[in-house]
Design a protein that fits this description.
- Helix 1 links the parallel strand 1 and strand 2.
- The relative contact order is 0.17.
- Helix 1 packs across helix 11.
- The chain contains eleven helices and six strands.
- It has a single domain, classed as Alpha/Beta hydrolase fold, catalytic domain (Rossmann fold), CATH 3.40.50.1820.
- By secondary structure, the protein is an alpha/beta fold.
Length: 264
């Protein structure tokens, strides 16, 4: 449920992609432990070690509220949030409704736009299919869509991703799909982002959030830096952690110590 090194008033907050859990950030945790950077990572209801969802058709804001509840439990008063895909959606809502908590934002492989009507319909159909037929078909589709050619060649990483996805429950997957379908358009708040902001895309993300889609977050905000990670698709922190950590960790450290990102 919660990552290590969280007994601090300020910490880095890791928000995972769908349908994974906090384990997707294992390579970042290793570096943060060595660098003594405080962090937490929260699994969403129905994913990883978190309890099942209470509502099977929740508003999207439920996920943000759950994360904030965890932060308050731990006495965390400020976060630098790192959100991948669905985690990025939560970051937008976090900034919109709990702005005082946010000291920095790292959007990874995500978008500000809401789903169009066709995509909303598809998410609801997927949710019902998962509840009726199980999650295996969705996991296969996610493994194919979310990974780069380089990652697909790495059988160990692919198996590890599969195992992480297998920890999600059908109920958790279905509830999250329906919630994401109902999330609002966050593009109006892009101009309001007044904290250090880093935007990261996977160079090989052709099927979920292509770089040109992710880059709009930077183009339409006061983004500090836009970064593309090579040999990565929708899951840059896991697919190419060496490149990701080399560029992102110094940026995070500068925000923690100075409140302003250093140039990379």
């Amino acid at each position: 449920m919660i990552g290590a090194r969280y007994h601090f008033p300020k910490a880095v907050l890791f928000l995972h992609a769908f349908p994974l859990n906090k384990k997707m950030f294992k390579y970042q945790f290793e570096v943060f432990e060595k660098e003594n950077i405080p962090y937490i990572a929260v699994d969403y209801p129905g994913f990883g070690e978190a309890p099942p969802p209470l509502d099977m058709d929740p508003p999207f804001e439920v996920y943000t509220n759950y994360v904030v509840w965890k932060l308050k439990q731990l006495g965390i008063k400020k976060v630098i949030a790192v959100g991948v895909s669905m985690g990025g959606y939560i970051m937008f809502d976090l900034f919109k409704r709990y702005r005082d908590l946010v000291e920095g934002l790292i959007f990874v492989a995500t978008r500000a736009e809401a789903d169009d009507e066709e995509r909303k319909k598809q998410r609801y159909q997927l949710a019902e299919k998962v509840l009726k037929e199980g999650k295996e078909f969705l996991i296969e589709a996610m493994l194919e869509a979310q990974t780069s050619p380089a990652t697909k060649k790495n059988s160990k990483k692919m198996e590890e991703l599969r195992c992480i996805m297998e920890e999600a429950t059908e109920e958790g997957i279905a509830a999250a799909l329906k919630a994401m379908a109902k999330r609002p358009d966050y593009t109006p708040i892009l101009k309001e982002l007044n904290v250090p902001t880093l935007v990261v895309a996977g160079s090989d993300d052709t099927k979920v959030t292509p770089p040109e889609v992710v880059k709009r977050i930077c183009d339409e905000s006061n983004c500090s830096l836009y970064l593309e990670v090579p040999n990565a698709a929708h899951l840059p922190p896991f697919e190419n952690p060496e490149f990701f950590n080399e560029r992102v960790v110094p940026w995070i450290k500068s925000v923690i110590t100075e409140g302003n990102p250093e140039c990379l």
